[in-house]
Every structure is written in structure tokens, then in C-alpha cells.
Amino acid sequence: MNVVKQKQLCFNCFGKHRVTECKSNGRCQNCHRKHHTSICKELQRKSEVESPQPEAAVFFSSTKRLNADVVLKNAIAPISSSHTTTDAAILFDEGAQRSFITRKLADYLQLESDEIEKRSLTGSGGSKNRSLQQLERTTV
């Protein structure tokens, strides 16, 4: 919330405008008010009252490209498998159909591959430079 206020971002979509001017129909998934779920005060209070969760350091990365601010939600949080637990850097992408981890982390967590998937992947910024990748998949 401090970063959103400091950068004067919209509480709802993190755009460079006021929440009163926000054209997004998105609402908090917890209380249904016009702010992003990740900054919901009720959700924070509720999680503090219920059981204490593992600590996670949450960061927002910001970069300027073509005079547009881009805010990326990320965190360092404990993750675990049935074999071990470790802290990992996480980049949140609510619009993605898949989550990815590095081979090094998968090996450390001793995750077993279910199957190989062929996926056409592209980086951020559009559909140029697509590449067909064969990726190992696991379900946890």
C-alpha cells in the first residue's frame, strides 16, 4: 500500500490515475470494494486474526519503458514439497495459465516430472519471437 501511495497509482488496477478515474471493472475478490485484492485491509486483518501465515516479504518492482510505469508484484516466500522447504523469489502473474520454476528449484524440492508438454512461449510485450518449448510438468 505504501508503494502504491508513494507512486500515486490507482488502488484498483495500479495504473497511473486515481481510483475515482479507473475504468477497470475489477473489484477486490475479498470485500468487493474498488481496490486490488492484494492491498485489501480486511483480508490482512482476517489473516492476522486466523492462523499466522509464514512470513513473506512482498515487493513491487517498477520500471519505465516508453514513458509508462510497469509495476510487477513479487515476493520472497517459503515454499515446500513433501521433501523440503526453502525461500523462493516469486513473480505473480494472475493472468497466466501456468506457473514456472527454475530447474534448480525443482531439483532442490525433489519434484518429479508428470509429463512433457509442448508450449509456444513468448516474452512480455506481444506475440513476436514465439518459441516452441518442450517443458517438464509436475502437479503439486
UniProtKB/TrEMBL annotation:
The organism's place on the tree of life at top rank: Eukaryota
Region (Disordered): 120-140
Biased composition (Polar residues): 127-140
Name used for this protein in its record: Peptidase aspartic putative domain-containing protein
Organism: Dreissena polymorpha
Taxonomic lineage of the native organism: Eukaryota, Metazoa, Spiralia, Lophotrochozoa, Mollusca
